[in-house]
Predict the structure.
Amino acid sequence: MKPFQKRSRLEIIRDILTVIRDSDSTISPTKLLRLSNLSYQMFEEYLGELEAKELVELKPYKGKRKIYSLTEKGRMFLEKYEDFVSFLRDFGL
């Protein structure tokens, strides 16, 4: 991606899921917000959608705290997305 180029919706979803995966599949909401590089409002919208589609889930952690974790469906989405991007790259698209 070129500097200062806007990310597409799918790229943002990929970035969120990748951040969770790279954090041993669990991450706090604050850290995820910071690493996903989104405004709080956009973060809430995307995570709400990802939860509704069962790609991530919000779990209780040590009392009142919560963490996001990547579901198996989220892992499969990332694998298929990466395969598709690789496929496009192989054809120069």
